[in-house]
Amino acid sequence: MSEAVPLPGRVLVVDDELAMREVLSVCLTRAGHQVAAAKSGADALRMLSDEGPGFDVVITDLTMPGVPGMEVLRHACALPHPPPQVIMVTAYATTDTAVEAMKIGAYDYLIKPFKIDEIQLLVQRALERRHLSTENRRLREQLKGVHTLDRMVGRSEAMQKVFELVRRVAGTRTNVLIRGESGTGKELVARALHNLSDRAEGPFVPVNCGAIPEQLMESELFGHVKGSFTGAAGDRPGMFEIAEGGTLFLDEVGELDPATQVKLLRVLQERTIRPVGGNEEVPVNCRVVAATNRDLEAAVESGEFRQDLYFRLDVVRIVLPPLRRRTEDISPLIERFFERFNREMQRGLEGVSPEALNWLDAYDYPGNVRELENLIERAVALESSSVLTADHFPERSLRVADVGQRPSEFPDEGLDLDARLADLERELILAALHKSGGVRKRAAGLLKISFRSLRYRLQKLGIEVGRSGEM
User: Fold this and answer.
1) How far is the C-alpha of 17 from the C-alpha of 10, rounded, in Å?
2) What is the pLDDT of residue 23?
């Protein structure tokens, strides 16, 4: 197995002794690094201020006249990301100074005299750590982009207003309540609020309030101490503590029981929590974003949801419209989901057929964007031709297909609903018979109805089919 190629880097050597600066400069230059030298701590501070981010590693003596090495360390660690890795060098090492240096952010602590191989190896490891830190940050930024507004599809005026509101409130600490039907993308908006805020480096902690049993909710949110109840074998932090410095997303907040509502209200007011079984208040610092698909005003009126908690959560409201009310977003969403699943499944499909597009565009999507996503995923997985056809969409997606005008385009003169539904039923039955080669039992299976039901419908609609194909 071949050895890893050493990483070259830019190194700043800081020492008030000329001999030490020269020795380190020569040996590190021979190792392939670019080396700059500072004869004092003051010179080092100037060089770091001018081009600090350009240095990968700083090697500094601890004891120098004027500005000591500790000050150089502090200045280097405070530089914009990624700061250089700092190696402290001294002939007068003590445990206290070593611990202090490591707490401030030093990479390592080297005692004079040292071997040239030792310093070269230490510099190489420091460079590897800085490279890893830079790469991790790049990957975090890349992943963060998945949940920013740039990755959300919404050409409609309604969604553009949502995006604008998200941008305006993301940088504040204000509580936000996201309203919308299931499947409209409430968690995506919550993640966008987090990733566009100054808390983006902190955790994003989602909690589905409707999925946690009532008796466990308090412990889940606020944590518990050892022995507070049967099975509490040790202290456990709650979601508020886990979300420290970041965002806590309370999904389906309308499902909280009355007792938990009282405790949540107190946390929002006091910014402290008390773990189950604990006696001390614990301060918390996280932003709360809540979401619900319930009519909270009606819940408040009926007494199911506390009015004071509602007002605390509903400081800024973001309402996500259902997909059926932003139909201009359907086509770009189809395109996005098709490209994604086609790539992930490595299907190599060329596109979506006009028939499939018509059916998808005519559907009313009670499950909203999530349902559209699931429909496309299923169809891409099952498709056997070169383009995505309508053959693999379940019957529920056809129940409004080809009915004609949407409700928003209802004709002024009205329409004969029974006749329109009969026409649709006839068209779908004929399509199923055509696909089944005239075999009625197979056609009934395609339509997800019984053979007896199909036979009745054929008689009712006056559709005649030869018996030769019947099984």
Assistant:
1) 21
2) 92
CA distance to 14, 64, 98, 152, 200, per residue, from 40 (Å): 6, 7, 21, 52, 38
Nearest partner of 288 among 180, 189, 190, judged by Cα: 190
The letter for the amino acid at 78 is: A
SS3 of residue 179 by DSSP: strand
Q: Round to whole Å and give the CA distance between 272 and 314.
A: 20
Write out the H or E segment, with its range, that includes residue 90.
strand 85-90
Sign of the alpha-carbon torsion through 90, 93, 97, 99: positive
Q: Closest Cα to residue 87, out of 104, 65, 137?
A: 104
Which is it for the CA torsion 380, 398, 366, 351, positive or negative?
A: positive
Q: 69: part of which helix (H) or strand (E)?
A: helix 69-77
Contact 327, 406 (CB under 8 A): yes
Question: Could you tell me the pLDDT band of residue 396, with boundaries at 50, 70 and 90?
Answer: very low
Classified as helix, coil or strand, 247 is strand
Q: What is the mean predicted confidence (pLDDT) over 292-316?
A: 92
Q: Judge contact between 24 and 15, C-beta under 8 A.
A: yes
Quick check: pTM over 0.70? no
Residue type, position 452, single letter: R
How many Cα atoms sit within 13 Å of 70 on the Cβ side? 11
Task: Pull the structure tokens for residue 280.
Answer: 């001390």
Question: Is residue 233 a contact partner of residue 245, using CB atoms and an 8 Å limit?
Answer: no
The structure tokens listed for 418 are 């029974």
